[in-house]
Amino acid sequence: MAYFKNLPNIIYPTQQSGKNSGNDYTKIKNLFKRPFIPESILKIYSAFEDYQIIGNDRPDNVSQKYYNNATYDWLIFIANNIQNVQDEWPLSQSDLNNFLFSKYTEQELSEIHHYETTEVKNSFGSVILKGGIKVKSNYTLKYTETVGGNILVRTVSPVKPVSNYEYELQLNDDKRSIVLIRPEYISLIERELNQIFRYKPSSLFVDEFNIKVNDQCIPKI
């Protein structure tokens, strides 16, 4: 991800056994500096756009399609609070199959994971029960409606089983619905991040992009 290049550094004593002296130092990126979306943008509803991940698209593919620049994958992550892309990004079909067969046997995949409701509408087409709500297998719904001046009492069992395979497939598909920050707000976020990533003067301060620590002081900054 491109934003890693802008992360400041921590200079700390080399931990390798073959170091020449106590003055050997290593420079690493300070991963404790975490980017976030500025509050000023979070308040602007129109700054975000719903997006559906298609097929096997990776974050860089989505970035290329939406921003015409593959390096803004990090912006997708912070917009959706994605911290572990392996767990929070939809798997490709082949990876999903590998995951399923490592977790379940073929028989277990077809077994029932839970039961959920199917959508119920009254005679006028109004939804009185949403589908997809987890319920017990014997769940029933009783409701009344007036038809032609008559009050009717109806009882239905709007329940369907969901197999382990269907459950895992839905979990994966749910990850496809994300939000993206509109391109016109990128420059503002980058300016904010430049300020976040810069160090302020302290006892460890070398310059805005570097701090130097010793063996007893490797801070989370």
Cα-atom radius of gyration? 26 Å
Low-confidence stretches: none
What sort of overall outline do the alpha carbons produce when their principal axes are compared? Answer: elongated
Number of DSSP helical runs: 8
Strand proportion, as a percent range, falls in 25-35%
- Indicate how many domains the architecture comprises: 2
Mean pLDDT: 86
State the major sheet: 4 strands, mixed
Q: Trace the largest sheet across and list its strands.
A: 2-1-13-12
User: Element order, helices and strands?
Assistant: EEHEHHHHHEEEEEEEHEHEE
Structural class: alpha+beta
Q: Percent of residues in helical segments? A: 25-40%
Strands, total number: 13
Cα(first) to Cα(last) distance is: 21 Å
Descriptive key words:
three-stranded antiparallel sheet, 221 residues, 8 helices, alpha+beta, 26% strand
Could you explain the architecture of this structure?
With 221 residues, the protein is α+β, with helices and mostly antiparallel strands. It has two domains: 2-85 and 177-212, no CATH class; 114-162, no CATH class. 28% of the residues lie in helices and 26% in strands. It contains eight helices and 13 strands. The strands form five sheets. The chain has a four-stranded mixed β-sheet, with no helix packed on it. It has a three-stranded antiparallel β-sheet with strand order 7-4-10. Helix 2 (59-67) packs across helix 3. The protein is elongated and about 85 Å long. The protein starts with 8 loop residues before the first strand and ends in a 9-residue tail after the last strand.
